[in-house]
Predict the structure.
Amino acid sequence: MKMNPKNKKEKGELMKEILDEIWNGKDLPLYEERIKNKAYPVIGEGSHDAKIMFIGEAPGKNEAKTGRPFCGAAGKILDGLLESVGLNREDVYITNIVKDRPPQNRDPLPDEITSYAPFLDRQIDIVKPRVIAALGRYSMTYILEKFNLWEEIQPISKIHGKIFDVKVSFGSVKIIPLYHPAASIYNRTTLDDLKKDFKILKKIVS
Ligand code: URA
């Protein structure tokens, strides 16, 4: 598809607004923690016109240090999986539900998800992906709830690699829950499942 430079600039501006709001978001539940640790918020990275949007959970230590999503051990796995199907980071958009690092990498709290998710919702509307790949159970649950697929929510072990079609304001979107790459660090079977699911992912965008 031919890129419209005007459209592209608008998307960049809209993303910048989100970045500024989070950067200055003194009311956000993890703002104080970020300042205390001299950490960065992690907004997201990749093409604003991506067909695939990957949504993780929250930044970890490396991400909060650099401001970049998935740049630690889980990120290496994600890069390998992308490469295995002929994609790279520039082709996709990668972000998280929660944009600041929870202390000690603990699971995000419901209140943190509620506070940060509106930024993710706006990012989805900006990028307008054709496929949303939800990485891990928090992301999967948030996305399935957001698109009113409550009755489809099951353990990720049951529905990873399954495709859910939804109609949204900008067209049709396919949702695919995937294991979180970090879950495959010490689990070969999970990595094999992820590899298979990435093939499905590639097929649905081709
Ligand atoms: N895990 C996530 O969910 N997101 C990141 O950005 C890094 C690790």
User: Anything to note?
Assistant: The two ends are 13 Å apart (CA to CA). The longest strand covers residues 171-178.
